[in-house]
Amino acid sequence: MIKNIMIRKKTLIFASVVALMILSLLTTIYASTHLTPLDGKAVNRVTPSIEPVSPESNFQVEIAYAYVGPLPPDKASYFDPKTNETMIHRSKYPSSVFLDFTPAPSMTSSVDAVIEVYGVRIVADTGITEYYGWTVGTANYSAFTQDDFATMNSYRGDMIHQSIYQTKGGTWCYNWAVDRSVLSKTIGSVGIYTTNSTFTQPSSSDLSRAGTPNAISVEVYRIGYITMTNGSVTIHEESETDNKPVAQVQLSKYEDGFICNNLISTEQLQGIDLFHPQR
């Protein structure tokens, strides 16, 4: 009888140890799924609320400039002394797009901060398409911290999926006045290089991969937006059926490529780097 009691005690102790180990493992897994590194820093990611999007965008978007054309020989490659390797441009027919953002008069003031998420499609008539993600956001009060920004920014990857979009970047301004427009940085494949050792063939999204295009169009559509109020994050995501362009343009033939220019005078186009019109 005493022997049986001792065996039961050992069994209970062993079971308790196993239960504690499992609980510790589950706690570790849960913590790891709620911490996302951002620039080497762990970001506390709480489960956000999910709500439908407002039919009104928080920003007005215009395509200020776009150029797509053959890669100049002097941009085809360069030697990187840091890696001791020759870098090869990924696209032989690169793109460069600049978007102009202005806060919409109807932008809600009931939130502390908002990040609007957009997709940019650059489409060739041959069927080849480049996809880029871009965000634009603002905070409406001075107490909005870098940690708040890092928390909101960490959710971009949940909306800008790497399986679709080649790169992502963004435009951010504090206390953005409704009458102020801000130009994005370069969006597109120009300036994207890879090492000579990994470059075996042009990118699958190279706009000339199926032959030199006869037409190019650019479309910008809203993927959704992220808001923060009193530290709580809400994700508003468009359904795929609602992803209609908020801005689109058919580029005009210009020299050996295609252009849309609402940024600089026609005279200024002569002799400049068409991929970087503001340099």
Question: TL;DR of this structure?
Answer:
This protein is 17% helix and 39% strand. The protein contains four helices and 17 strands.
Give the tags.
disordered N terminus, alpha+beta, seven-stranded mixed sheet, 17 strands, 4 helices, 2 domains, 39% strand, five-stranded antiparallel sheet
Can you lay out the helices and strands and say which pair or pack?
Layout: H1 2-33, E1 35-38, E2 41-44, E3 49-51, E4 59-68, E5 77-80, E6 85-89, E7 95-103, E8 113-124, E9 129-139, H2 146-153, H3 156-159, E10 168-174, E11 182-183, E12 193-195, E13 216-229, E14 232-237, E15 245-250, E16 252-254, E17 257-261, H4 266-269
Parallel strand pairs: 3-14, 9-10
Antiparallel strand pairs: 1-2, 4-7, 4-17, 5-6, 6-12, 7-11, 8-9, 8-13, 13-14, 13-15, 16-17
Walk me through the structure.
The protein has 279 residues and is an alpha+beta fold. The chain has two domains: 2-33; 49-269, no CATH class. The chain is built from four helices and 17 strands. The chain has helices spanning 2-33, 146-153, 156-159, 266-269; strands at residues 35-38, 41-44, 49-51, 59-68, 77-80, 85-89, 95-103, 113-124, 129-139, 168-174, 182-183, 193-195, 216-229, 232-237, 245-250, 252-254, 257-261. The radius of gyration is 25 Å and the shape is globular. Residues 1-41 have low confidence and may be disordered.
